[in-house]
Structures are given as C-alpha cells and as structure tokens.
Design goal:
Blueprint: H1 5-9, E1 13-18, H2 24-36, E2 40-45, H3 47-50, H4 55-61, H5 78-85, E3 88-94, H6 96-104, H7 110-117, E4 122-126, H8 130-134, H9 136-147, E5 151-152, E6 156-159, E7 165-169, H10 173-186, E8 194-199, E9 204-205, E10 211-212, H11 219-230, E11 234-239, E12 250-253, H12 257-268, E13 273-276, E14 283-285, E15 304-306, H13 310-317, E16 323-330, H14 334-344, E17 349-354, E18 366-367, E19 369-373, E20 382-383, E21 387-388, H15 389-406
Parallel strand pairs: 1-2, 1-3, 3-4, 4-5, 8-11, 8-13, 11-12, 13-16, 16-17
Antiparallel strand pairs: 6-7, 9-10, 14-15, 17-19, 18-21, 19-20
Helix pairs in contact: 2-10, 5-7, 6-9, 11-15
Bound molecules: ligand PMT.
C-alpha cells in the first residue's frame, strides 16, 4: 500500500470509463475521490452507463466534460488522443459485456476504442450478478485480461441489485483508488530490464501419443510475464501452454524439459532477472517409443531418467547482479523444503508455494506463498496472504526491484 496516494495521483491523467450497471452510481464517488487526490479525470460514459447516471454529474465533478461518443467531438480521433494522453485508464464498473468486448478486441464505442488504443496501464473493476461473474465465459475473459497485464480489482461479496446477495458487487471506491495508485506507483520501474520467465508444466513422451506431465496451467508464470511487461520490462516467456501473453512479450513455446533447458540457457546470460515458475518434470522416460505402444503387448516397463535441472544450472552460471528466482511447489514442510532448494540451487529468492490446498498452487487463479531470500540478503521470510496470481506476481516483482536497487548489475 502506498503511503501518500495524493503524491502519486497529483497531475496524473486518468481516463475513467463507466459502463452500464447499477454500480455506475458508485463511479461518481470514485471520480470525486480521484479528483480530490489531485488526478486529472476524464470521464468516458458508455450508452449503458447513461441509463444509470447523468453525463452532467460527471462533467460537474471531473476535470473535463464527460465524453460519450466517438462522434460527438470535432476531434475525429478522440479515442487515440484519449488513450495516448492517459497515464492510466480505469473502468468502473466494468460489465460482463465490456470485459468480453475488451478481451475479444472489439471496439464499438469510445470506451472500447480507447482501451484498444492506449498503451497506458489499465485497471478494471468488474461488477455484475454472482451467476454472471462466475460464468466460465466471464472468468475466461478476466483471465485473458489479467494475462495481458490488466489490473483487475475483484468484486466483493454483498448486496446486489434486486435484493440478491453474493459475489459481484463493485469493489469499494477506496479499493479501486488503491488499485489505480498501485499501478501508477509501480509505473515503469522495470523499464530497460530484461526478464526471462518460464511457465507451465513440461511433457515427457512415453510413446508417440502418451506423456508424463503435471497439473501446471501456466497461470502463475504468465502472470509474472504480464506484470513485468506492464512495468516496462523486456520480457521473454518460455512456456509450454497456449495461454495469451501481454503485448510486447516475446513468447518461446517448448514442450519438454530438454527443450525448456535449451531455450532458457541460451537466453539466461543476457537476462537481468530470471523467474523459473515452470513445473519442470524431474524425470522422463529413458527410451520413449517412436510409435504408439500397443495394449496387446502388455503393460510397458517405463524406465525413467533425470531431466536437466535448469534452475540448478542457472544458479551455477549466474552472472553478477542477475536476480534468480525459483518456485518450490511443496505439499508438506513448505518452509524447510523450499529453503533447502534455495541453498542447493543458489537462487536469490525462492517462492515457497504450498500446493496442497484447493485455493493455491496448480490451476487456480489465486495463490499463497512464503518468499525466502538467500542468506546473504539477511531478509526474513515473508508470508503472503491468499491473493490473485497477478498480485503475487507484482509483489514478487516489487521484491526483485528492491533487490536490484541494492545490488545494481
Ligand atoms: O502453472 P500454475 O497452474 O499457475 O501453477 C503454478 C505453480 C504451482 C506451477 C508454480 O507456482 C510453481 O510452484 N512452480 C514450480 C513448480 C516446481 O517444479 O517446483 P519444484 O519444487 O519441483 O522445482 C523447484 C524449482 O526448480 C522450480 O523453479 C522449477 O522450475 C525448477 N526446476 C525443477 C526441476 C527441473 N528439472 N528443473 C528446474 O529448473
């Protein structure tokens, strides 16, 4: 949390998008808070928003008159002008329709056109009924946006329109302000930094159709890559999964531990930061069959051999000043096991990831970890609460930035 939000927001140009949900009335309060904290707020209201709130309300409170259309201005390209000039674009409330159009790249009004035209960070605060919020299509769109580096201020549980109660209520304006301030405060603190990230689980062939794999979805690694890109880093992501990546991220697709080792080791020397979030298989079949093994030939005996330990090799070859981060997926004795890996692999930060619960680790959108620092840093271990993988990525990057400031390359 930033101590002085006013110092961060003063003079910053905030495009405040408001879409058509009952929570649009709370965007009035958000607008007022941002202006009070010194931001220059430009409201952009969709047609739907205008059914819930008045244009003149925002025009009276904001720093400029509210905009409502791509065509109501003498400026023929208001969206690119708004998008280019913005320090941050905030959409609150963001309806399911807005999230879907933004995720799909559809620009059919001033707000969606501005969202596609901007290179500024974007914060969305969704609000809708619980059933809609939980729908896989909406969750998929939110995951796509997060992976592209969009900051999502999750809705809260509470009273919804029509007297229903559940998750989907717009986050409190104070939380949305915190989200905006956090994004602006981090700004481009990784500008010029080369970050190499791995994501996903490797697949090790048994035969032409079968493989040994693990449950990694790649969400954690893609979140780190997206957050680093949003903060200005030049990011290369070596991944085994086809999830979306943030604009500007160089993507290298691999499948096996061997392929990942080659891709990573070829690039690591030039990286300032390496984050190994991938779940690399420790063993692979020694002699995979080139064809499909036949059931009629009986149960095959699969002999395993170790894969290359990429992180350990990175630890041995680490150039001075490089920050090397590992993840340790553990089901028991989290702290001790992760600390042993930190020492054995010569990493600077080990993210000890408890993967035994239902809400952290593999596949889910949230995570919880203990950050362990190498002994020569003298920093105490740091336990995180349960947070989104995007938030954990930002926390980790905050610690990496702090380490780089102390020990520049
Ligand atoms: O992808 P998600 O579904 O979002 O799930 C995220 C995650 C649980 C996969 C991720 O947060 C995580 O914990 N990744 C590390 C998983 C893992 O392989 O842990 P490990 O304890 O087995 O390995 C320790 C470290 O060594 C890891 O950084 C790993 O990338 C690395 N390693 C492991 C084996 C190997 N042969 N080479 C390696 O480089």
């Amino acid at each position: 949390m930033v101590d002085d939000p006013g110092a961060v927001l003063a003079g910053r140009r905030v495009v405040l998008g408001v879409t058509g949900g009952i929570a649009a009335y709370k965007a009035v309060e958000l607008c007022r808070r941002l202006v009070d904290l010194g931001a220059h707020v430009v409201p952009v209201l969709t047609e739907g928003a205008l059914r819930f709130v008045g244009e003149s309300t925002f025009s009276a409170l904001a720093s400029e008159p509210a905009r409502t259309s791509l065509f109501d201005d003498v400026d023929p390209i208001p969206h690119t002008r708004l998008g280019r000039a913005a320090d941050v674009v905030v959409v609150a409330p963001a309806t399911a329709a807005l999230l879907g159009r933004y995720a799909a790249g559809i620009s059919d009004d001033l707000l969606t056109a501005t969202l596609l035209a901007t290179r500024a960070p974007v914060v969305v605060a969704p609000a809708m009924h619980t059933e809609m919020w939980e729908h896989p299509a909406v969750q998929g769109n939110v995951a796509t946006l997060r992976a592209r580096g969009v900051e999502v201020v999750d809705p809260e549980a509470g009273r919804l329109a029509g007297g229903d109660v559940g998750e989907g209520r717009l986050a409190d304006p104070a939380r949305i302000v915190d989200g905006v301030v956090g994004v602006l405060a981090r700004g481009h603190d990784l500008a010029g930094v080369r970050v190499l990230v791995t994501a996903g689980g490797t697949r090790e062939a048994i035969d032409a159709v079968r493989f040994i794999a693990n449950r990694s979805s790649g969400k954690m690694g893609h979140a780190v890559a997206g957050a680093a890109a949003r903060r200005g880093a030049a990011v290369t992501l070596v991944t085994t999964v086809s999830r979306p990546v943030a604009a500007g991220v160089e993507r290298v697709e691999v499948e096996t531990a061997e392929e990942m080792a080659q891709a990573v080791l070829a690039r690591a020397g030039a990286a300032d930061v390496v984050v190994m979030a991938a779940a690399v298989a420790d063993f692979r079949p020694k002699a995979p069959s080139p064809g499909k093994l036949k059931k009629r030939d009986g149960v095959p005996e699969v002999v395993l051999e170790p894969t290359p330990d990429i992180l350990a090799t990175l630890g041995e070859r680490k150039p001075a000043g490089q920050v090397l981060v590992g993840f340790a997926a553990e089901t028991d004795d989290l702290h001790r096991n992760a600390a042993a890996k930190l020492d054995a692999k010569n990493v600077d930060i080990m993210v000890a990831n408890d993967v035994s619960g239902p809400d952290a680790g593999f596949e889910v959108d949230t995570n919880r970890a203990i950050l362990l620092y190498s002994h020569d840093r003298g920093l105490p271990a740091e336990e995180t609460p349960l947070v989104s993988k995007g938030d954990l990525a930002d926390l980790l990057l905050d610690r990496i930035v702090a380490q780089r400031e102390k020990e520049p390359r």
